[in-house]
């Protein structure tokens, strides 16, 4: 009896998957299912109690502690105001107006429109001068490295 070796020509279009979609034996499939179920049970058994403990900690300790801290701070503030250590906060303007409605206050002094326009022209010139100075100082730095990218036509 002689054995013959048959060589098949390699097929270019023939692709084999790296992982088989269906297992060859039923025991491997059962092992996968058991592993997945065990992992899910472990996650639920671990994460749910931790989440519940965290929620319980928040409800029993953190929220009441914050409320007590806030109440003690207000009590301390009232005591300091009563002793005269600090002044009470005023919810009014120093001019005596009420903040609930809009009020227009007159400007004292002799200001004309020409004074405002002269000041605005001077400030515009100062701004332009400062801008030129900054462009000279930071030229070719920052986000744009070349002059072609820094100026848009």
Please give the count of helices: 3
Tell me the distance between the termini.
Answer: 87 Å
Question: What amount of the residues lies in strands?
Answer: under 5%
Task: State the secondary-structure class.
Answer: mainly alpha
Strand and helix order: HHH
Low-confidence stretches: none
Q: Rg from C-alpha positions?
A: 40 Å
Sheet with the most strands?
none
Tell me briefly what this model is.
Helix content is 57%, strand content 0%. With 153 residues, the chain is mainly alpha-helical.
Task: Provide the fold topology.
Blueprint: H1 26-83, H2 113-137, H3 147-150
Commentary on this structure:
It is a single chain. The protein is mostly helical. Helix content is 57%, strand content 0%. The protein is built from 3 helices and no strands. The chain is flat. The mean pLDDT is 76.
Notable traits:
flat, single chain, 153 residues, 57% helix, mainly alpha, 3 helices
């Amino acid at each position: 009896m002689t054995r013959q070796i048959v060589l098949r020509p390699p097929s270019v279009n023939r692709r084999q998957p790296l992982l088989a979609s269906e297992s060859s034996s039923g025991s491997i499939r059962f092992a996968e299912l058991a592993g997945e179920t065990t992992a899910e049970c472990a996650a639920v058994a671990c994460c749910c109690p931790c989440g519940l403990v965290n929620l319980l900690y928040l409800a029993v300790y953190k929220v009441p502690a914050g409320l007590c801290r806030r109440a003690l701070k207000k009590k301390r503030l009232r005591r300091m105001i009563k002793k005269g250590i600090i002044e009470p906060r005023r919810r009014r303007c120093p001019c005596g107006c009420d903040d609930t409605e809009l009020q227009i206050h007159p400007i004292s002094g002799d200001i004309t429109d020409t004074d405002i326009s002269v000041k605005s022209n001077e400030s515009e010139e100062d701004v332009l001068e400062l801008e030129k100075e900054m462009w000279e100082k930071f030229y070719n730095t920052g986000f744009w490295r070349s002059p072609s990218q820094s100026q848009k036509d």
